[in-house]
Amino acid sequence: MINLIKSRPLNTRLFGVLCQEMGSGHEQLLLHTEVRWLSRGRVLQRLYELREEVKWFLTEIKSDLAKHLDDTMWLASLSYLVDIFDCLNGLNLSLQGRETHILLLADKVHAFTQKLDLWHGRISRGNCDMFPSLADFITDAGTSHDFSSLFQSASEHLSAMRKQFATYFKEDYSSFAWVRDPFVCTANELSIDMQEQLIELKSDSRLKELFSSCPLSSFWAALMQEYPELCDVAFKILLPFASTYLCEAGFSKMTALKTKYRNRAQIEDDLRLCLSNIEPRIEDLCKAKQAQVSH
């Protein structure tokens, strides 16, 4: 449906005019692209929001695809996909950003898998309140339609997704909970020397204030000289890339810097400046240079 409308400029313009005349919240559909990992959910959501406009347009151009938008079960399945992709996009966004580590992201993934178990149980009993688009569609459809087959398909889909998550995220990081909060968690799996160091760390009230006022990586970096063994284990957990966010941010900055007009430019220093959180003191840098006077 989307390709039929978006692939031809005339169809795109006519569809935009139709959306304007119908007072729609949007005037265009979205195209899916593999490069942008949020696009699948947004494409489905935009199509679902403009389903009436798409139906009118496809009917006017006598397309066979219009019959799907009269199919209640097809629309109900689309609303379920809109909701589940929105949940997956929310999980993806929560895994991005700076100052993240594998322990934090593992907890978020574990929480999502627990939600999948909850959703599977509820939708197996015919309850779809956790999926707002699907719940609203079923309410509007009334009691004249039987959605039991859709609930069964959604239940099987959630179960398969839960198993797939289990194959991707097998590691158990519960033994490293002391890295994230050394003042609460215990670490019985550590050696006796490291356990004694951890006890000393917990008893230092000065370090408690430091822990609450700085990022986790900065906290362990400040303890490198005092507790080298504990810090060595902590950094092996905190330093690895927990997601591809930093790599993707670097590629985005590089594509913005190295255009076709600067394809021979050496951008190592510029890229380091773009990715750094440190703001340059432009005034001090200018004062250290001699101005070019006119002759």
UniProtKB/TrEMBL annotation:
Pfam families (alphabetical): Dimer_Tnp_hAT
Organism: Labeo rohita (Indian major carp)
Top-level taxon: Eukaryota
Lineage: Eukaryota, Metazoa, Chordata, Craniata, Vertebrata
Protein name as it appears in the record: Zinc finger BED domain-containing protein 5
Occurrences of domain HAT C-terminal dimerisation (ranges): 203-269
